[in-house]
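Objective 1b of the project was to move from sequence-level analysis to a structural picture of ligand recognition. The entry below was assembled by the postdoctoral researcher (A.K.) and checked by the PI before modelling. It contains the amino acid sequence of the target and the SMILES of the bound compound, zinc ion.
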Amino acid sequence: MSVLDSVGRVRNAPDLYLVVSSSGSEYLVDMAEGRCECPDDSHRPSVTCKHRRRVAFVIGERPIPEWANQDALDDQFGLHVEAEPTRAVPDGGVAQAIADNNSVTRSDSGPLAIESHDDPRTKRAKREAIDVSFLRKPGRYEVQSASDSVYEVDILEETCSCPDDASRCKHLRRVDIEIRAGLVPRPDGRLPEA
Ligand SMILES: [Zn+2]
Ligand SMILES: [Zn+2]
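Corresponding predicted holo structure:
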C-alpha cells in the first residue's frame, strides 16, 4: 500500500489521505474524523481498518518499532507520500510506511533534521522532496514540490502562492530553513556569511 497526501482529492486537505493498494484500489482516509471509505471500515465501525492503520504509521501517530532503520525509512517516506498513484509500488512491508516519530531519538543532524519540537507542518517542510531556487527578485524564491507543483514564496512578505491557508505553509518554512542553513542565497541575493 502507498499513502498519498498531496494528489487528487486530498491535495489541499491536511487530514485526508489516499491509500492505494497494490491491486490499484484507492480509499480515502479522513484522519480527523477517523473514517475510511473502504467497505471494511464502514461495516465494522469498531475496527480500525488497515488503511487507517497504515496512514497512522506514515504520519507518525503510531510508534516506530525499535528495529526500524530510520535513515532508510526517511528516504522512502518522501517518495511515498509524494508519489503519483500510477507509480505506486507493491506493498513492500511495514518498512516503507513508517515515518518519523517524536518518541524516537534520531541521530540525524543538519538543517533538515527533524526535531522533536517541530510541528507537523515543519516536519513536512523538512522531510519532503522540495526544491528551492532563488528568483533574483528581492525575497522571492521558487519552490518545486515532488508532485511537480511550483509555487512562489516571498520570504519578506511571508506569502506563498500555494493554496494552503496556514499562516506559514511548508514551502515558506522550507525556504526559511534553507536560508538559515546557507543552502540558498539570503533574500538580498547574497550567500549568508559563514
Ligand atoms: Zn479502509
Ligand atoms: Zn506554500
